[in-house]
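ok so for the tutorial part 2 we go from a plain amino acid sequence to predicted structure tokens. step 1 is just haveing the sequence, like this:
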Amino acid sequence: MHQPNLFACICDATEEVPVGTEGSQNVEFFGVRTDRTKVTAEEVRGLIQNHIGEFDQCNPFDGEEHSYIELGGFVGDQGGALRLMAMGAELGLWTLLTPTSLMPFLPEELRMQMAGAGFVCIKAGV
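step 2 — the prediction. this is what the tokens look like for a chain of 126 residues:
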């Protein structure tokens, strides 16, 4: 199914669910479930490569870490950026880096503070 633009694809192919929901990616603030019948990795890659950022340009495939704050400027919405990050991780486009995935031993309150400060990132291999 062809998606008209990146944000529409994110909205159509993902849903926010409670953290810990089976089959979801944890982006700290909520979980994200991706409907793989509505999107492919190749489609997402193409939409990202052809997307003109809302407030800033970003190349999630450059091998650098990119936070949801930075991707929020690219997508135009931080919630949409978090959903994109989870969707891309689910589709194998990049690795999702969160306080919980990297430091599960920290207290939940501290992990949420770190997430609020922007420490929810992606990193794609080059």
